[in-house]
Write a structure and sequence with these properties.
Layout lengths: L6 H12 L2 H28 L2 H15 L5 H27 L9 H20 L2 H19 L1 H9 L1
């Protein structure tokens, strides 16, 4: 195991070991804080700067802009996007859950997905073409808003 450690890791272990119990506790808490902050940033970047999600959403937007779009095809596209969105969310969340006990989910990412996909699903259930079109456009615009770097930094800082 020691052969696998880098010099920087050994240096950190020695410094940690030199700290007293209070210092070790504070250091552990600070590492958890940093990991939580990194988790939120990584989750936002993984979802809102994802080219595949963006392209699927852009294609969906163009699909519903047509007067005679295929509702079934649009619904399948939304399901693809939803599976990808939550798959990425789960991967990042699992990665950090292993490192930080009681990791809070990123409420903004979770709520955006939950509210957006629920609204889209309700629109498809209603069968109202105008409502479907409106919800797709709204979802796309909100996704675009979050994908701007300035907004991501602001959200993570909160």
């Amino acid at each position: 195991m020691l052969a696998e450690l880098s010099l920087k890791e050994i240096e950190l272990l020695k410094a940690f070991q030199a700290l007293g119990p209070v210092g070790q506790k504070e250091c552990s808490e600070y590492i958890k804080y940093l990991l939580t902050k990194q988790y939120k940033r990584e989750l936002m970047m993984s979802i809102f700067n994802n080219k595949l999600i963006h392209n699927l959403l852009h294609g969906l937007l163009h699909m519903v802009e047509k007067d005679d779009f295929d509702v079934i095809q649009a619904q399948k596209r939304v399901m693809q996007i939803k599976e990808l969105y939550y798959g990425i969310f789960e991967d990042v969340h699992t990665k950090y859950t292993e490192l930080v006990d009681d990791l809070d989910t990123n409420e903004i990412v979770r709520e955006f997905g939950k509210n957006g996909f629920t609204s889209l699903e309700n629109a498809f259930v209603s069968g109202d073409i105008g409502k479907i079109r409106y919800e797709v456009i709204d979802f796309f615009q909100q996704y675009e808003k979050f994908s701007q770097k300035k907004d991501i930094k602001h959200v993570v800082a909160v």
